[in-house]
């Protein structure tokens, strides 16, 4: 069960309905950065939460404000960094893995989509070092997810590796605690 948005632009961005989103923005351009009354989500945040790459690209092309935060002080980059595979994705990968490695190809396709989504958001003016209410940055979240493919993208944009979250942990500390050796090595090179 997902979020239910009252703002039409957020609803269409979340569902990935580009045609309705286009109509909503054509009728009222203020909808581009409208925020939900309760969650504070914008259409860009809603699209990033659901991983709707085409919608994210469309919103960024139309100059959606990537700096806006919701009630949890999270930007769209936080949600891109937090995205994981769904239970259905894991099941499909596990079921299809023995069948001509179809599961592996599905996994690669999902990873490519994550990279594309991250690259789209990083191409905007998003604050790469923004901290949420837990003190976590996008780098903290990709380290928590053990996302070896997304960590380098953030490091290339000079993500600050020294920011401590509310638990006093840097992204390196998180990676060491969770024993993600490859990510630890990547982060140590940046220091």
Tell me the layout of helices and strands.
Layout: H1 8-15, H2 18-27, H3 43-50, H4 53-61, H5 76-82, H6 87-96, H7 102-122, H8 138-144, H9 151-156, H10 171-177, H11 181-190
Helix pairs in contact: 1-2, 1-3, 3-4, 3-5, 4-7, 5-7, 5-8, 6-7, 8-10, 10-11
Describe what this molecule looks like in 3D:
This protein has 191 residues and is an all-alpha fold. The protein contains 11 helices and no strands. It has helices at 8-15, 18-27, 43-50, 53-61, 76-82, 87-96, 102-122, 138-144, 151-156, 171-177, 181-190. Helix 5 (76-82) packs antiparallel against helix 7 (102-122) and helix 5 packs parallel to helix 8. The longest helix is centred in the middle third of the chain and has 21 residues, at 102-122. The chain starts with 7 loop residues before the first helix and ends with a helix. ANK repeats lie at residues 39-71, 134-166.
Determine Rg (CA atoms, Å). 17 Å
Q: What's the overall geometry? A: globular
Mean pLDDT: 91
Q: Ranges with pLDDT <50 over ≥5 residues? A: none
Give the helix/strand class: mainly alpha
Helix content: 40-55%
Largest sheet: none
Strand content: under 5%
List how many beta strands DSSP finds. Answer: 0
Distance between the termini: 41 Å
Discrete helix count: 11
H-E string: HHHHHHHHHHH
What oligomerization state is this entry in? single chain
Pfam family, one: Ank_2
ANK repeats: 39-71, 134-166
Transmembrane segments: 87-108
Organism: Champsocephalus gunnari
């Amino acid at each position: 069960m997902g979020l239910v948005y009252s703002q039409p632009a957020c609803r269409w961005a979340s569902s990935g309905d580009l045609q309705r989103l286009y109509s909503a923005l054509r009728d009222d351009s203020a909808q581009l950065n409208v925020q939900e009354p309760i969650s504070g989500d914008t259409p860009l945040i809603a699209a990033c939460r659901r991983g709707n790459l085409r919608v994210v690209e469309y919103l960024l092309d139309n100059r959606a404000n990537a700096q806006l935060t919701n009630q949890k002080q999270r930007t769209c980059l936080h949600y891109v960094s937090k995205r994981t595979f769904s239970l259905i994705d894991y099941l499909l990968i596990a079921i299809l893995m023995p069948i001509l490695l179809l599961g592996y190809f599905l996994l690669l396709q999902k990873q490519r989509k994550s990279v594309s989504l991250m690259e789209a958001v990083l191409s905007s003016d998003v604050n790469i070092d923004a901290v949420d209410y837990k003190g976590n940055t996008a780098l903290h979240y990709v380290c928590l997810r053990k996302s070896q493919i997304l960590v380098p993208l953030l490091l290339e944009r000079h993500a600050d590796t020294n920011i401590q979250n509310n638990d006093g942990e840097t992204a390196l500390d998180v990676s060491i605690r969770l024993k993600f050796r490859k990510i630890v090595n990547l982060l140590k090179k940046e220091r």
